[in-house]
Sequence to fold (84 residues):
Amino acid sequence: MNITRPEQLSAFIKDYRSKSGLTQSDIAKLVGIRVATVSDFENKPQSCKLETFFKILAALNLKIDIDTRDAGSQVDSSEWTEEW
Fold:
């Protein structure tokens, strides 16, 4: 899967969680975070801490692989509204 935006990432993880039969409460209990924190990630991923993101991945038994973009692809800087 090619994910390039925080919203795509949170939508994928939310869908995966739902298909796995897990609630936000289940995820929160598995990794010791608040249900509101899981909800915030799913609804406002751009404000999520990386630590929270990795905890949610762990609860879902998911991992992340990073790869280079195709040589011809361009980065559209207009997509980025925040400076990290």
Notes: The domain at 6-61 is CATH 1.10.260.40 (434 Repressor (Amino-terminal Domain)).
